[in-house]
Specification:
Number of helices: 15
Shape: elongated
Number of strands: 21
Distance between the termini: 63 Å
Strand order of the largest sheet: 18-17-14-19-20-21
Largest sheet: 6 strands, mixed
Helix content: 40-55%
Length: 516
């Protein structure tokens, strides 16, 4: 709706807005008035008529700025206001037209009177005092939003009025979304209740406040819209991705996962925890055959071993400025936070102990490894409060914190980012020290824009040069992986969107190989 429609509506009644159909009819009547007036020159009448028609078209359907739409709508209203007079039509010679000017003027007056009556009836039906009581609406939000995932929001509306109503729903979304063109259009039959759903994808953690729910209703004539304001202020917290956590939970429960992207890791041995004796299945390790049970049953039986439990799994997150790099609306630290929640949940389902440590220029959140029933909630709350810092991460401080805070050998997933080989070399001695105490997995990220650029075909000398430089940056990342492997440090180089999947695969692989 343009500014003129809103201003006129607010002058007439509060919460009244004039529809596009109102301006269609008003513009048509204005055109008839223009044709009927005795301008000496036919071309002047044609020009005014064209202006009235184009003014309507552009003001309602054109891709113009709000200022131009406002001026064009003002022109239409001005033409009607000047020509809407009930004085006798001036007796003058009218140019040769199929219908005389006097007849056109009388027709325009009659149409305008009928139009005014229809507008009055439409407004009377909409502004019945009982309407506000009979139209009910509410917004339904989940207990929390998941960071970086589409979250469902529901709006329930019921119509107990005797008329079917057209609806335009405008929800006042939280400021963080910066979405000002949101609306849902539909029709709500009388005596019915409908649920309207839409999805929102938050890109930062914190409190999100939903404000009023605006419902614009119109009757069967659709000349006037009435705004109903539902006081529906709600607040919802955006936490690390719980939806992603539940998505990967199946991997911890299922022994043979068919989850897309999950690797089936062949167990190279078994741990010391015996679980049960079962029938031999093709592919089982023949070294696990239980010969005594086989002789008693006269059928091949094997020992089944459970992965060793109660191992400590720590998520260590670098909060330094290198983790502020954005990707698809989220920072690298947000991806690390989501994955830390996922791996903690998977570890707890595998009966391991999950813990958390964050650091930058100082130590941040610390959650001791545990497998208690509230451990996942404790980690979730700790991750929710973490924020990036603008300083370089202090890896010497990390080493000191590991010696003080993590006393038992553990599997440590270190989420950080190295943009160059030199930046990794500076901290390599500290990483080697940590790897002597624990099983360290260094996780860092591909620069997806550079990778995609390096894969494009070059058309000229400049593009060949740029592609060569991009290729050198990509190769540096793989050089970091080779250097870490040379010193016995596990690593994962991944695209941000594949971080959770690759980290869970690595955890399952290390556990299956008994390396923890």
């Amino acid at each position: 709706m343009s500014a003129v429609k809103k201003v006129l509506g607010l002058i007439l009644f509060p919460n009244v807005y004039l529809s596009a159909r109102f301006f269609i009819l008003l513009s048509s009547i204005a055109g008839i008035f223009v044709l009927s007036f005795p301008f000496p020159d036919l071309s002047l009448r044609v020009i005014l008529l064209a202006l009235a028609i184009s003014g309507f078209l552009f003001s309602n359907f054109g891709q113009l700025s709000s200022l131009y739409k406002t001026l064009l709508n003002a022109f239409i209203i001005g033409v009607v206001s000047l020509l809407f007079t009930f004085v006798p039509y001036p007796s003058t010679t009218f140019l040769d037209l199929p219908i005389g000017g006097i007849q056109l003027f009388a027709l325009a007056q009659s149409l305008l009177i009928a139009f005014t009556g229809f507008v009055f009836v439409d407004a009377l039906l909409l502004f019945n005092p009982s309407v506000k009581k009979l139209i009910k609406g509410k917004r339904i939000l989940p207990n929390m939003f998941s960071l970086g995932d589409p979250n469902s929001v529901e709006i329930k509306l019921s119509n107990n009025y005797f008329l079917s109503l057209g609806l335009t729903i405008i929800d006042e979304l939280p400021d963080q979304f910066q979405k000002r063109d949101f609306e849902i259009k539909d029709r709500l039959p009388r005596g019915e209740e409908q649920t309207f759903k839409y999805k929102l994808t938050p890109t930062e953690r914190g409190e999100y406040v939903f404000h009023n729910l605006n419902i614009f209703i119109n009757g069967f004539l659709n000349l006037v819209n009435r705004r109903l304001i539902v006081d529906s202020t709600n607040q919802v917290a955006v936490y690390p991705s719980v939806l992603q956590m539940k998505k990967f939970e199946l991997m911890a429960i299922s022994r043979i996962s068919t989850f897309q992207g999950v690797k089936k890791v062949r167990r190279l041995g078994h741990s010391y925890e015996f679980e049960q004796i079962r029938n031999y299945v093709k592919g089982d390790d023949y070294r696990s055959i239980n010969w005594k049970a086989t002789s008693r049953r006269n059928d091949l039986m094997v020992n089944q071993y459970e992965d060793e439990r109660s191992q400590q799994i720590f998520s260590v997150i670098d909060k330094g400025r290198s983790m502020k790099m954005p990707f698809n609306g989220l920072s690298l630290m947000d991806y690390a936070i989501n994955t830390s929640l996922v791996i903690s949940n998977v570890a707890l389902h595998k009966h391991d102990k999950a813990g958390l440590l964050t650091f930058s220029d100082k130590v941040g959140a610390t959650v001791k490894a545990d497998s208690g029933p509230r451990q996942l909630r404790t980690i979730l709350e700790a991750l929710y409060k973490e924020q990036e810092r603008n300083l370089e991460a202090n890896f010497e401080l990390l080493y000191s914190a590991c010696k003080k805070f993590i006393r038992r050998r553990s599997l440590m997933f270190l989420y950080t980012n190295f943009e160059s080989y030199t930046s990794m070399v500076r901290v390599l001695p500290i990483l080697r020290k940590i790897n002597r105490l624990h099983l360290l997995v260094v996780i860092f990220f591909e620069n997806t824009e550079i990778v995609d650029f390096a894969q494009q075909s070059a058309q000229n000398v400049e593009e060949i040069y740029n592609k060569t430089i991009a290729g050198r940056f990509v190769e540096e990342k793989y050089r970091i992986v080779r250097e870490l492997r040379q010193y016995g440090i596990q690593s994962i180089l991944t695209r941000p969107e594949n971080l959770s999947l690759n980290t869970v695969n690595k955890y399952l692989e290390l556990k299956a190989r008994g390396m923890i």
